[in-house]
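Materials and Methods. Structural model of 4-hydroxybenzoate polyprenyltransferase-like prenyltransferase. The 261-residue sequence of 4-hydroxybenzoate polyprenyltransferase-like prenyltransferase from Frankia canadensis was retrieved and submitted for structure prediction as follows.
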Amino acid sequence: MRACHPEPTAAVTLFSAALAASSGRTARGVGLVASAVLAGQLSVGWSNDLVDRHRDAAGGRADKPLVGDGLTPATVAAATATALVACVPLSLACGRRAGFTHLAAVASAWGYNLGLKATPLSVVPYAVSFALLPTFVVQGLPGAPAPPWWLPAAASLLGAGAHFANVLPDLDADARTGVRGLPQRLGAAGSRGSAALLLAAGSAVAALGPARPWGLRVGVLAAVGVLTSAGLRRDDRTAFRTAMAVAAIDVALVVAGARLD
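The predicted structure was written out as tokens:
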């Protein structure tokens, strides 16, 4: 379980389930969305550690179970394949159009694992996959409607910001092993600034895009500003948790807005 990147896996699954619940789905519908997203996230997390195991070993990443705990590649490969196979029917059970949207989001994340992470395009899979995630949730409703423009836009910006925050703890190890994604090219200061800017922009779109009480909008933006300023200045492990906290605030805003409407 530690090899699946449990924090982002749990966060993305819970956020998706919350959006599904706010849309008026039945308990079965919410469960299908959560199960599909969980299976996809497990496949992405496990494949990430599997593909990177040699690089992680060269970088001295003893915190990785495949490096420091004796977890075998065969075990992770079997878990990855199981999750990926399960993701297909679970996604399609949410509706054909929605299912293919979710599978495209998972494929984009796999593209990151399989090579894009080491290129200047490393942020693209994050932006694409996070935009497609709420699109998948909305398309699963009767009639497969398109989401409002601001929902995938906000999610895309938040996902891109999370990418820069997520890479911060690994910059030194990445430098030793030749990973040259966009954050590595910008360096620690550039990545912190990019994360802050993108998280703020995503929150602004989420707050200002739909019709909401102005007091709620101002309160959310103020909370995000304080959290981002404090969290991104602390240690690099805190930076990614800050990104997840900002995303949680924005999801709560969307859920509250759905109930208000």
